[in-house]
Recover the amino acids of this structure.
């Protein structure tokens, strides 16, 4: 069975031509799916009975089942979804003063092997389809009856290791005929896959790019993030500089502060030097301890000193609030627990 959410509006129109339907019918279907949120094709009464029947023989609307749900005191809601093939994925809703943002998963498991991350405890099983990513947005907004204003592709998986599906997902949720989530409210986060950044620079889309850096030099980054051995920090910087030149967009560098690993003032200075001249800012992220490794978050004093040093060196810096600290908030933890890895 295919998911109807897999289809961008353009692909839906192509499909309708194949089945001898008028393209404007595809637009009616697309609009209905994302504005009226029907549970079955039967409910889409703008289409003829025959067409509804034939669609329901070919497609299902949403392939996700809620397998678990945890709600934090701060409003964070973490979902564990079961896909049609039984695989489990996580999605997290966060409450901000500017709206609700959803952290979407792009793969079942992940092959990037970052040492500090719980997601990588389970190797990649497969890529998610666009519809399985769209489904995360639909299911959560339906379940809580809310409008999701921001989407970050920062859940389990490496989006640029599933490039085409992630871009279709972005086109679907951004489409003005559907959810119409603004491009500037959509962020893709990568561990630093340079060819992906190069492609993304040429998409002609106003979505955001975030880079998971976490190291201020190659020595540290090689240990934390194996991808650095393929695309080192120089190559990464060049790709990001080119992206900024092409898109005129500001890039976020995410930096987790890990006690005794990357949180000294010298690291802040190296980081400032690395970012000098880039239209970028640093988002400092509190490390979320994972049971399976020995990494610990930096102390509040070290964190404050690191941030102050970056600001002193004129590097724009923000500090991410921790969300869902009282639930299995860290990336991949809920799923890893369910699978018995944690
Ligand atoms: N593969 C992509 C997106 C998924 S990871 C990427 O690397 O950006 C999303 C973000 O969460 C990354 O910045 C990642 O480094 C960070 N992260 C992973 N495990 C974490 C943990 N235990 N605590 C805090 N941040 C973590």
């Amino acid at each position: 069975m295919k998911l109807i959410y897999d289809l961008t509006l353009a692909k839906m129109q192509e499909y309708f031509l194949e089945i001898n339907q008028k393209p404007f019918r595809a637009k009616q279907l697309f609009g209905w799916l994302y504005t009226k949120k029907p549970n079955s094709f039967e409910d889409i009464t703008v289409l003829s009975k025959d067409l509804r029947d034939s669609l329901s023989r070919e497609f299902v609307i949403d392939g996700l089942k809620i397998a678990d749900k945890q709600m934090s005191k701060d409003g964070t809601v973490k979902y564990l979804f079961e896909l049609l093939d039984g695989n489990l994925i996580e999605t997290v809703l966060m409450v901000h003063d500017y709206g609700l943002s959803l952290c979407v998963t792009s793969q079942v498991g992940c092959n990037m092997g970052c040492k500090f991350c719980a997601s990588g405890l389970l190797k990649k099983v497969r890529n998610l389809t666009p519809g399985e990513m769209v489904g995360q947005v639909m299911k959560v907004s339906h379940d809580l009856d809310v409008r999701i204003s921001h989407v970050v592709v920062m859940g389990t998986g490496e989006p640029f290791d599933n490039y085409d599906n992630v871009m279709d997902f972005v086109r679907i949720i951004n489409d003005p005929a559907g959810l119409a989530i603004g491009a500037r409210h959509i962020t893709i986060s990568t561990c630093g896959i340079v060819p992906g950044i190069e492609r993304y620079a040429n998409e002609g889309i106003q979505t955001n790019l975030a880079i998971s850096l976490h190291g201020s030099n190659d020595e540290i980054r090689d240990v934390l993030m194996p991808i650095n051995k393929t695309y080192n920090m120089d190559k990464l910087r060049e790709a990001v500089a080119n992206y900024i030149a092409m898109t005129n967009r500001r890039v976020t560098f995410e930096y987790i502060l890990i006690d005794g690993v990357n949180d000294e003032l010298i690291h802040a200075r190296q980081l400032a030097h690395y970012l000098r001249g880039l239209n970028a800012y640093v988002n400092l992220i509190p490390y979320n301890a994972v049971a399976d490794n020995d990494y610990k978050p930096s102390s509040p004093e070290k964190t404050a000193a690191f941030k102050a040093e970056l600001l002193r060196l004129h590097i724009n810096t923000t500090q991410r609030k921790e969300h869902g600290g009282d639930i299995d908030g860290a990336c991949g933890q809920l799923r890893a627990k369910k699978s018995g890895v944690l």
